[in-house]
Amino acid sequence: MSEEPRAGYVYAVARPFDPAPLAGLEGVGGYPVHTVVVADLAAVVSTVPLHEFDEEALKANLEDLRWLEGVARAHNAVIDAVAQHAVVAPLRLATVYHGDDRVREVLREGHDTFDAALRRLTGRLEFGVKVYADPSTRGTAPADAPAAPAAPGESPGKAYLRRRREQRDRRDDTWRTAADLCDRVDAALCEFADAREQHRPQDASLSGAAGENVLNAAYLVPAEHADSFLRAAERLRADAPEGTRVEVSGPWAPYSFASIDAGEVPA
Amino acid sequence: MSPQDPDGRGPAPARAPVRGGEGSGFPEPEGGFTGFPEGSHSLARMLDEDHPLANRDISLVDLLDRVLAKGVVVSGDLTISIADVDLVRVSLRALVSSVNEKVPSPWEHGHPLAGWIRT
What we know:
By secondary structure, chain A is of the alpha+beta class. Chain A is built from 8 helices and 8 strands, in the order βββαααβααβαβαβαβ. In chain A, the strands form 2 sheets. Chain A has a 4-stranded antiparallel sheet with strand order 2-3-1-4, sandwiched between helices. In chain A, strands 6-7-5-8 form a 4-stranded antiparallel sheet, covered by helices on one side. Chain A is elongated, with a radius of gyration of 25 Å. The termini of chain A are far apart. Chains A and B meet through strand 1, helix 2, helix 3, strand 4 and helix 5 of A and helix 1 and helix 2 of B.
């Protein structure tokens, strides 16, 4: 019976490290994790059955939320584990090769790119910051707002238009407040960051999060500034004006800054 | 099974734990390092346990923002182009609408595809 074809699922490229802590770690699909080292680079790899990660399987699996979540969390767990031991450049989900020899080739061919990424990421952490605007939390919900006393002689039509205008003003005001807050958040946090990346705002109708996500940013922060960054973020969160909300996540492995074109210096 | 542990394989990773090894330039967290590979709260250890930002679970939405759209893109031998997220997003759209109809809100931290589907 011929052996099942195998493939190499690559999580990340790191500086070489003692792989002992990888023993017992379960990667994607529950498969063990090892390293493939070439010079000053180490790829973090799981050997997986080819049929679980070939093009056909991936096309189907990426539409399976349970599969996607399982793989995304395993991918992240491995990268986090490595990040405790070495500077790490995470690879995009589901980067798969025909085995360790091919991974060695990729490390050799891409050496300068990986090396530059690792240099940029050394000693740095990623934090995520989101700002939400939620006009409905600002004051009384429009539908429930008590009708303001009609001005003497105000017709029902005029009163209606006035109430609509007041609702609109309140909404406009919330968006203005949120836009100002985004500017303040970004300016304050860039003080402590080397770089900032924007993520796509998360869709409120799907996330179930209250309000509209108006800023979804990631900051690359030198480890020695992480405390200051978080203190500043916490102040911004605590002082967020009515109708807005600030959420902070992290530290993350530096996903958002691993690609070559990432890492613009904040203005 | 919970959304945090879809495969019943053990605790889901909490905050992305990044902690420095020797010479990596990261500060040593207080309280030492209690377990690898569990590591489920190791990064949060950088933060005080009482810190309002510490010890919260990773939102899958935030995770997908990173693993699908960010990270180093090198062309694999076998990977379909995840770099071309639009492709993935289009095919996921049908799934999301079906999920929304049948399972109102199975996701503790919001729908994992939030932000990926634009209408």
